[in-house]
Amino acid sequence: MTVRVRFAPSPTGKLHIGNIRTALMNALYAKRNGGVFVLRFEDTDFEREVRGAESQMLDDMAWLGMSPDEGPHKDGGFGPYYTMQRAERGDYKEALEKLFADGRAYECFVTKDELDLMRKIQSSQGKPPHYDNRHRDLTEAEKDAFRAEGRESVIRFKLNEGKIRFDDMVRGTVEFDAANLGGDPVIIRSNGVPIFAFGGAVDDVNQEITHVIRGEDHVTNTAIQVQIFEALGGTVPIFAHMPMLAAEDGSKLSKRLDSFSLQEMRAEGYHPLAILNYIASLGFSDMPKATTVEELAQQVDISKMGRSTVRLDVSQLKKSNAHILHELSYEGAKPFLDAVDAWKRVPEDKKETFWMVVRGNIERFDEIDPLVEICFATDMVSPALEADDKSYIESAVECLPASPYTEATWQEWTGTLKEKTSRKGKALFMPLRLALTGMSHGPELADLMPVIGEELTKKRLQSAVK
């Protein structure tokens, strides 16, 4: 059996951290098991659909290094990969005909007001609100009467009574009583559009999906879908329901997902491997340190994922990013640096040297901005120096070595100054750091001097004296 997994987002906005997590765990499972990672779009939310969202999601997934093996961009023989295109082809109509023929589907004419009243009465009686299946056995005459009133119908799936069990790679054996699932679920809206639980099940059967990996908020849907799979004569996939994501304070993350969109993280200067390593760690005890998606796939075993709610920790994401950046070669960094505005101000012949000097001092690519100023600004304002430090800087100008500057220049220069002024320690190097960078901390000056160069070094020293 070839493992086939799928990621099925709605094209209604940005790819956020919740989407990425679902997509990533599916992609990694496919790679780990030599399977196929399928992308399809559930384009049934017409009001919220965002033009161009699909292409942006594909671009984001490619940037992360986890492009789907099959989907709208690459037909694998199981297309089309949009719900509405599959509806036009007749996939759901055919499945629905089977359900009607087997007595597992029926028209329901209950209005919204009737449903609301039904649930209020149930709640007042201390019962969980649910649809009471009252239209399961309508006669044709009763249906015609409702139509004559102008009522629109939905299609509901008739749940069989009894226990529903399925195996879950994260949660173990899961069991539901069909009586506790809220009544027969709607599977086709009044406008003819399939509900996710039904449309997704039909697609999974037709696309031969073997494993469904998603958030635990879908566990109840899964219980319903198990009966739908069985009613359609399909093989029930193996499921894995990941624990929910929460904000750092434990609150719901759903309203704050835009701040964790991939576009935002890209703009803030995160490296894709850092994002992948961090997201892959959610639900596990250890942070992976993979250098490729393939390597990450071998490190992540979804069957060992915990069940407790996971809290996002931005500090851990930053640590993951810093770990990647501090070891990143110039060639590896260049494609990301080219997207940073400040990078354009770095002279071409200094770019590689500059990156190797500053990479150990940043956690994100966008943090090079002040370091560009330190190394290349011609109008930097030096902080005020004490009178004795000014005379010391004057001596420093006189002792300044000539080009070319190397890693040994700083030691040579400060050694001469130490002999001439008898200064040592902080008194020796801090005035020089302040005069050259305007800051009391930062990259090693021994590394910075070859980047700043003789001309700018001399100019800044003289400016500090003035």
Determine the structural class based on helices, strands and strand pairing: mainly alpha
| Mean pLDDT across residues | 93
CATH class of the largest domain: Alpha Beta
Please tally the β strands and state the result. Answer: 11
Q: Beta fraction of the residues? A: 5-15%
Specify the overall morphology: elongated
Round the Cα radius of gyration to an integer and report it: 31 Å
Low-confidence stretches: none
Count of alpha and pi helical runs: 19
Total of domains? 4
Sheet with the most strands, sense and barrel status: 3 strands, antiparallel
Distance between the termini: 77 Å
Q: Could you provide a short overview of the structure?
A:
With 466 residues, the chain is mostly helical. The protein is built from 19 helices and 11 strands.
Topology of helices and strands:
Layout: E1 4-7, H1 17-32, E2 36-39, H2 53-64, H3 83-89, H4 91-101, E3 105-108, H5 112-124, H6 140-148, E4 154-157, E5 163-168, E6 172-177, E7 186-188, H7 196-206, E8 211-215, H8 219-232, E9 238-242, E10 245-246, H9 262-267, H10 272-281, H11 293-299, E11 310-311, H12 314-326, H13 330-337, H14 351-358, H15 369-376, H16 387-398, H17 409-421, H18 426-437, H19 445-465
Parallel strand pairs: 1-2, 8-9, 10-11
Antiparallel strand pairs: 3-4, 4-7, 5-6
Helix pairs in contact: 1-11, 7-8, 10-12, 16-19, 18-19
